[in-house]
Amino acid sequence: MHRRTTTRSIAQPELIHMPWHISLPDEKPNKSKDRLKQSSNYVLRASKSKKYQFISNFTLQRVADGKELESILKEKGFFNSSCCLTMGEQIDLNSGENFLPLEMFDDWDYDTFDPEVLAIWKNAEALAILPPYTDWQKVLVVNYEPGLNYWQVTKAGTSTAFRIPRLHLYFPFEDPYKFADRNVAAVKAREMAENAIRFQFLCKHISSDGCFAPGRLLEQSVLRRSSEEIYGIFKHLYESYHIALAVGKHLNLDSSSSIKQPTIGCLDSMKYKPSHGYNSTSITLLLDCFRRSTLLCDRNVFHAMRFVHQECEMVRRLPLFIVANEKPIPLEEYEKQNLTQANKTMKYLQNTWIERSTMHLNRILSRIGKGNFYIGVSSWNIYSVMKLKRLIEQVLYRMQDALRDLLLDSTAAYANFLVNDCSAILSIGDDYCWDGNLIDSPFEPKRPAVFYLTLEMGQETPYYSTDPDSFPKTLRCIMDDTLTECHFVHTIEPSLMKSLIFAENLFLSSLGLLDPIIVKRREALLEYYRKSLLPLRAYASRYTAYRELFFTNVKEFVEQIKSADKSSSEIKEDIALQIRLRENLEHTVPLCIVIGPYWINVQPLREALIRKRVELTAALLKMLTEKLRLKTADVIACYNTINERMCEKPASIEHIYDIRAYIEDVPELVTRLEDRMRSILYEYEILEGFLHNLPDADFQQKWNALAYPRLVLKQMVSVKEFHESEVDRFRKQQFADEATFTASIEDINAYISKFTTLYDVSKVSEMSVEVRRLWKTLQELIDQGHIMNRRQELFEMPPISLNNLFELRNNFKAYRELWTVAADYLKLEETWIGNPLASVDLEGVRRGLQQTHDCLKDLLPLFRDQPQLLAVLEHFVTVVEAFRPNLDIMELLKCPFLEAIHWGQLAKEIGVKGKLSVDVGFDVFLEHGFRDHLETVRRVVVKAEQLRLEQEALWAEEERIRQIEEDYRRARAERRLKRTDI
Questions:
Q1: What single DSSP character describes residue 367?
Q2: pLDDT value at position 90?
Q3: Run of H or E including 457
Q4: pLDDT score, position 30
Q5: Burial 316-343, CB ≥16 within 10 A → b, else e
Q6: 253 Ramachandran zone, left/alpha/beta (phi>0; psi -120 to 50)
Q7: Which value, in Å, is the radius of gyration of the alpha carbons in the chain?
Q8: How many CB atoms lie under 10 A from the CB of residue 58?
Q9: CB atoms < 10 A from the CB of 592, how many?
Q10: Which of helix, strand or coil describes residue 171?
Q11: How far apart are CA 305 and CA 205, in angstroms?
Q12: Distance CA 517, CA 508 (A)
């Protein structure tokens, strides 16, 4: 029969770290051994030992009462309370309470049978100790868990099931003393394990302040032969070993203690175990002695340090910088987020951390009361020798260590996040130029880009939405400002020790800005970003080639094309060029590009450039459309002109013949227009080639122009038919006009004959107006006669005689000239006399008199046979000759040398009362009889001229003297300048 006799010894270190509860899937007891070994949770069993008892009769009941079993257990030194382990509360290692479950130390060598082989346990009655572990009760065994040695039982008379370990279950056929030995061995193994754990706990949490560190010579010797990392491991082992020796030596001061001094192996692998002579009360006495010299002399101190440790661990996990983003963000936003995060963390460090740590220490240390950890102490002398001061120093060091770890981890994460592993950036030189295309970036980082930039076009050069030069400065300021703020985290002493007075500038020691680690990380960060600016600027400079396109004014561009007066084929080439350039932009300019830590958004600039190409293309197409619209409109206007010219309503027979002459040229005109329209259609095909949709009006205009030739030819036939009817109408109108013309000739002849009998010279103005009207009427009748004769010719009728009209005009011509010349002269004479003398042109007066006199003399022969008209003519000749003497007096009075004194002398000598001048009209001089004092006027004028000559001579002499004086002064000034003795 196979037996499960696995031995779990306390000497094995795995027992201490093993979980208290392990669950295995239920398996039937009749499964084979091989199937069990294949299980992942299979427990290795030890070989059979002498502890095992052979039972030949499983029906024998050695102990049937729980009281009897309990007395045997007490006799062996096992009590029911040893089975009880409070799992709901946290056990303090400084106390003597058990904290490991007893079943962990069960020795399976005591098993009396193999449950998987023998089924005698099924539904068997047994004794078990159940919660609350006060007495042993009768139970019914229900189930068994292989590998864990756990049993499921039900209390007698109930259906409540309990899951208990083998140590808590006694079968009646077992040897009760063997069962007692099994429980006592488990209790002793647990005490040894718990004592070893307490011993290692004490060694681990004792502060030595560097007393057990290796000496300087040993440190130098190890460092010469190894690295700092290996020395750190050696130092830890060295300190742990000597601390353990010190603790063991201290515990061995008590003669009742049987704990041996541990070795390095027991510290690292927990193989150290106290001797078997040790009992449960010895650890309490040893701890009382140890509390006198260690900080961990009270469970509250341990709890306080545990809470401080928890708060420090929370600080180590605080986010001081933004080191993760779902997508790139602008520098300004990143700086703002970092400022918010840093302020939040600094608020926690400077307030919450101190408050929570102080609260925990105050709450827990207050439980201890007066003594070494009394926080209400008010004397510095007492406080300086108390354990409380050492405890606060430990808290201070832990907080400073946590703060330093926070800064080291945060700055490392900050630099690691910003320096996103692009080795190509660090290898470029200061003279780097972007030689490749604009789409593929040779600076692709291994991790996502951090910052978001937008490439924009400026008036001079392209630029980014954020100045690249601000990145190194801003990132350094973010890091340095945060590190600087961390130097102002207060210690907990002033807030914890209220009864003592502390300085206001007590802060935790933090990392400095010149710390080698910080300097190295800062320089690596700045070097990376200084180098990253080189490809960033080089990439932006490549877009300078697009600046002219970006700022191109579409209207000015179109005006330049228009001013160049390009043909449609040339415009077609320009449109095709714009389309090719737009497609080139789509294939050569990216939407975005990553350069090291920068994610650059080129899409707005790219869309602007493409949109500008599209606008230029659309403007050229629109310009070509307008050009074709004007050409087509001009063709249609020509067709409309032809139509209007043909469809004019004839006003006369001449008009009809003019239209007929024009119609004969219409087919040729239409042919030329058709040829012209065909050339325009070729230009329309250019627009169709670019898939440009014509506006509805232009489309309609195009097809109207193509349909016009047929409409014009059709209209031409209609016009010819209309003209046939109009010719008959105008022939009838010609007869009526001929009769009216003859009557008009007779009327004008009779009126002129009557009018020529008028000879009143006093009505010369009325006569001149009527003469002019009659002359105009005669001329109009002659013109009308010529028109009617042309029409007579067109109607193929004999011409009308106009001889009587010509004769009447010749006879009336002399009469017209007599009255018109006389009237014109009288008007001139009125202007000469009535206007101021200064404004009268004497040459014009002389010329007017001569012309009027000559015209009147020429008319004298024509009126020899008409005495009345001859008398009128002679009268006007006399009037003209009578005005001639006035020319002499007018010429004398307009002398420019006459001044006010001379005008006064003339008025005095002639007897004029009033002021005379050249601004007075000539009629005033005539009224005062100046024509009778011609000699007086001439004498005064001569005297004025002589006086003027004398004045001019005097002025010339004065000017000569002044010039001489001026020359003298100039010569004297030159001599003074040349003198050297002054």
A1: T
A2: 60
A3: strand 451-457
A4: 38
A5: bebebbbbebeebbebeebbeebeebbe
A6: alpha
A7: 68
A8: 15
A9: 18
A10: coil
A11: 10
A12: 19
For residue 218, the surrounding DSSP H or E stretch is helix 216-225
Beta strands in 618-738 (DSSP E): none
Pair 548, 502: CB distance under 8 Å: no
Q: Are 454 and 329 spatial neighbours (Cβ–Cβ below 8 Å)?
A: no
Is the pTM higher than 0.70? The answer reads no
**Quick check: 494 and 506 in contact, CB under 8 A?**
yes
Strand partners, 594: 599
Secondary structure (DSSP) of 21-85: --------TTS-HHHHHTSTTPPP-PPP-TT----S-TT--S---HHHHHHHHHHHT--GGGG--
User: CA–CA separation, 854 vs 718, rounded Å?
Assistant: 64
Q: How far apart are CA 937 and CA 910, in angstroms?
A: 9
Q: How would DSSP label each residue in 264-281?
A: HHHHHH------TT--TT
707 class by beta-carbon count within 10 Å (0-12 exposed, 13-18 middle, 19+ buried) = exposed
Distance CA 379, CA 382 (A): 5
Residues in Cβ contact with 439 at an 8 Å cutoff, skipping those fewer than 6 apart: 588, 589, 590, 593
- Scanning the structure block, which residue is given the tokens 């001449």? 654
Q: Please, which pLDDT band fits residue 932 given cuts at 50, 70 and 90?
A: low
Closest CA to 171 of 271, 59, 3, 280: 59
Q: In what order do the strands lie in the sheet with 136-145?
A: 161-165, 150-155, 136-145, 125-129, 169-170
User: Residue type at 462?
Assistant: P
- Indicate the residue type of 413: A
Report angle CA 9, 14, 20 to the nearest 5 degrees: 90
Helix (H, G, I), strand (E, B) or coil at 982: coil
Rounded CA separation 8/3 (Å): 15
Could you say which DSSP state residue 511 is in? -
Distance CA 726, CA 732 (A): 10
Provide mean pLDDT across the span 318-345.
93
Residue with tokens 């430990």: 394
Gap between the Cα atoms of 639 and 659, Å rounded: 15
What confidence tens digit (pLDDT) does each residue in 742-766 have?
Answer: 777 776 776 676 666 666 677 777 7
* Pairing relationship of beta strands 125-129 and 150-155 according to DSSP bridges: unpaired
- Sign (positive/negative) of CA torsion 294, 298, 299, 300? negative
Query: Which strand ranges, in their side-by-side order, compose the sheet holding 592-595?
Result: 462-464, 451-457, 598-601, 592-595
First to last CA, the chain: 153
Give residue-wise pLDDT tens across range 266-300.
333 333 333 333 343 455 555 555 556 677 777 88
CB 271 within 8 A of CB 11: yes
Residue 5: how many CA atoms within 13 Å on its side-chain side?
Answer: 16
Residue 566 carries which DSSP code? -
Angle between helices 228-251 and 176-204 (to 10 degrees): 120
Tokens for 141?
């065994």
Separation CA 200–CA 206 (nearest Å): 10
Residue 364, number of CB atoms within 10 A of its CB: 21
> Cα–Cα distance between 712 and 666 in angstroms, integer?
9
Token pair of 511, please?
A: 């990392």
Distance CA(759)–CA(869), nearest Å, equals 7
For 496, residues 6+ apart whose C-beta sits below 8 A from its C-beta are 358, 361, 362, 375, 392
CA 982 from chain center: how many Å? 79
pLDDT digit string (tens) for 573-626? 888 888 999 999 999 999 999 999 999 999 999 999 999 999 998 888 888 888
Q: How far apart are CA 574 and CA 577, in angstroms?
A: 5
Nearest 5°: CA angle at 93, between 89 and 97? 65
Q: Which residues pair with 751 in a beta bridge?
A: none
Q: Copy the structure tokens of residue 879.
A: 């009037």
